[in-house]
Structure formats: structure tokens, C-alpha cells
Amino acid sequence: MADIYTHKDLAALCGVSETTIKSYRRKFPGFIPVLTRGKPIRFKPEAGEVCLMIRDCFGKGMSVNETYKVLKEHFKEDRPARQRRARNDETAPDQADAVSAGVSQEYLERFFATAGQMMQGMAGLATAQAKAEHRLRKVETALEKLLEIEAENKAFFSRILERTAPAQAASASDAASDAMPATAATAQPSPEPKMRARKIVNVRGPEGDVDSYALEQDEQPSPERPSDAFLGTPIVIRNDQGEFLGVPGRLPLAGFLSILVDETDGADANWTRKENTWIFTVTASDGDTHALHFTSTTTPRGNLVILLDRLDVNHTRTSPEFLQEFFRQVKDKA
Fold first, then answer.
1. Which of 38, 163, 220, 242 is 20–30 Å from 27 (CA)?
2. What's the pTM?
3. CATH number of the domain located at residue range(s) 7-103 in this protein
4. Each residue's pLDDT tens digit in the chain (334 positions)?
């Protein structure tokens, strides 16, 4: 039983790998006799001599067909195995050509094994990359939501400050323009200080005494208008995709309105307020009116801007396309 071989024994005998011994079997199945087909497979004693001769032939650079002829001269070939070899030769011509060209089978097997490992590694890398991209998308989505929340908070605090900020002025003439009017939901604003015109009238009584009377007339209060901070904020508009579009150089609202009024000869302009919206109405000499609606908001990046979100022409609301074209025409004159 000492001459009964396994794949491992044949590999040790020939000084090659077990994979090489298995390739010998695939190429020359009729010359390596099997004793038992259990695990591990055991071979008859003459299998050792056959494998040694196959190794020597390949070592001399002989092809599979040349080695087959040498084996056929020295050993008996099993007929069914010979038929299987013929079928294998028909289905693997390229492999036989490679061996005949001087490339050993052992080299090819190592090459294909290495290539398989590389493919597995690349597949694992692709899977890891896909997972990383998925996690990155989650992080980006979370950041976008945080930025949206931050922008909403800034807009909210801006509106609160605009409603509740006390009037601060350097002089009595600026107090009326800088004061923030109360919203419709609160009590009516307290009247501004009024300048009174005084006229002294002397009335002589029947007994010759003279009484003086002061006739006073209230001046008209100053018209309501936004604060200087509101007028100094850059103006923007939204396009069809909801993106903010401004004017190059961050043109403030006051500059935009100045261009608009200059383009309308003989125009009469006034401000009104409706809740959080300031409405600037321009009445041309021919009676046409343009009412522009402005609100304070913030961009996704947190910049405070004034949004032109509506335009009424002769008390009729225009379409978003008309509003964008109107904005573009005024912007081109900046």
C-alpha cells in the first residue's frame, strides 16, 4: 500500500503542486489509473511513473500532443479516458496552443487563479464604493435639510425683528421713516408727533379789553414707507425652478426702484403695507398702475434678500413669466 498515491503524494513525488497533478489528469486521463474514487482519490502505483514522465516532457518544452505520444509509447491508455481526452482537445484548442507555444500549464493555472482573485477583489471594492456613496448621499440629504431649517429660522427671526424693532432715529425728521408699523393683527399704531401751525388772532371786547387766540392746524402725517435697512437689502426674484436670481453687484431694493421710477416719466409712487408684504405702486401719467409686492426672506445659503414675488398691472395680477420679463428689463438698465 506504500505505492498507492493521492494527489498530495503525487505532487510531493514530482515536486509540483496538487493543482498541477490535477491538470495532468485532465490532459492525460487514460494514463493515470485510479484505484479508488473515494475521498481522497487514490491512484495505482504506476501513476507515479506517469506523472514523473509528464513533468519531464513539459520541462523540456514539449507540447501536450508530443507528450501524449511519449506516454503512449511507454504506458497503456484506458480507452474511455482516451475518448474523453479527444473531446477535451476539441473544446480547448486555445489552451493546447498556449502550452505548445512554451507556456507551462502550471503557469496558466497560477495566472487564472490570480486573475480570479483580482476579480473578486474588484467586486468587493465596487460593493464597498457603492455603500460609501449611499452613506454619502444620506449625509448630503441631512445637511440639505439642516440648511433649509436654518434658512427658515433666519427668515422667521427677520420677520419678528422687523415687526418688533423700536423706532431709532438720529433726528425727529427721521423718526417717522424709520419706525416699524404694527401689523394688522395688532392694535393700531400710535400717531406720530404732529407739527402744528399757530396763528395769533386778537379780539377786542366791548369794554376795550383785548383777548388773543391761537388757531392751530395739524400738518398731514408723513406717508408710511419701509425702513432704510429694508430698502438697502439686495433684491431677487424666483425663476421657474424656484431658484433665487438677483442683479449683478447685489443691487439693493432702493436702486431697483430708482431705475423703475426714472423710466416712468411723470410717475406718482407710494408705499402701502399688507401684513408682511410691502407694496410699491407706481402710477404713470396715462393712469396705468404697476403694484410691486416685496417680502423679506433668506436664500438657502442664509443671505437676507428682498423678494419681488408679485406684480399687478392695473389691479390685475400678472403671470410669473410676465413678472420675470419685467424684472429682466429693469435689471438690464442697472
1. 38
2. 0.36
3. 1.10.1660
4. 457 899 999 999 999 999 999 999 999 999 999 988 888 899 999 999 999 999 999 999 999 999 999 999 999 888 665 555 555 554 444 444 444 445 566 778 788 888 888 988 888 888 899 898 999 899 898 889 889 989 888 888 788 777 766 554 444 444 434 444 433 333 445 555 444 545 465 656 556 666 665 544 444 556 789 999 999 999 999 999 889 988 888 999 999 988 888 877 657 899 999 999 999 998 988 888 999 999 999 999 999 999 999 999 999 999 999 999 999 998 898 7
